[in-house]
Amino acid sequence: MKAVGRNRTRTYDHLCVRQALYQLSYTPKKNIHVTLELSFCSRKMEELVDLKKISPRIVQEIVYATPYNFLKKAIYPAPKCYLLSKTAERLHLAQLSLEKRGLSLKIFDAYRPLSIQKIFWSFLPDPRYIADPAIGSKHNRGAAVDVTLIDGSGRELLMPTSFDDFSEKAHRSYALAVPLAIKNREILEEAMGAQGFLPFETEWWHFDDPDWENYPVLDISFEALG
User: Fold this and answer.
1) What predicted TM-score, i.e. pTM, was given to this entire model?
2) Residues 18, 57: one domain?
3) Number of domains in the chain
4) DSSP string spanning the chain?
5) What rounded mean pLDDT belongs to the chain?
């Protein structure tokens, strides 16, 4: 476990215990699962870091801190962007590679507390796009990002759909988009894949850290993170 301060560490440990108990009601082999979950939490814990401190040139447009999202209202209290430290480092390397091509990443979402995941699920209980909070999202682990590409003037490159378009057109396998949009989608996927990120099939903007399974679901509020 990385040292993140006495109080923060206690918060993480408490959340691991709470998450194990939360999953208890959803697991047939209850005792075995809880034992594994508690061991898992104590073994794999990474610090959540402010992305601006790791990669300040990645443009941030945290849409869930605005009303311009599928919920049509601001859900996050502030436009904050946190990731696991290793995930943030991977993203920084992707940014550096894109800068060589005159491009940049724009990030829409990163770490998301489990309590907010429950709100998302209540609006759209569709596991193709929103993870069931009973299981938890990669976003809840600080191990997923929603990103697009922008050019040197800050303009978003054409993609098959806008962000949070929950339709077949947003799927990576969708082949009927205009050629330029498909090319841009491939450039993004190539840059992210070169750093180990795993593309999410139904959302062209969503990428997961390859080690996401090693980290627990968290419910640390943005206020607690600072």
Assistant:
1) 0.82
2) no
3) 2
4) -----HHHHHHHHHHHHHHHHHHHTT-SSHHHHHHHHHHHHHH----EEEHHHH-TTSEE--GGGSS-STTSS--SSS---EEEHHHHHHHHHHHHHHHTTT-EEEEEE----HHHHHHHHHH---TTTS--TTT--TGGGT-EEEEEEE-TTSPBPP-SS-TT--SGGGSTT---S-HHHHHHHHHHHHHHHTTTPEEPTT-TTEEE-TTGGGS------HHHH-
5) 86
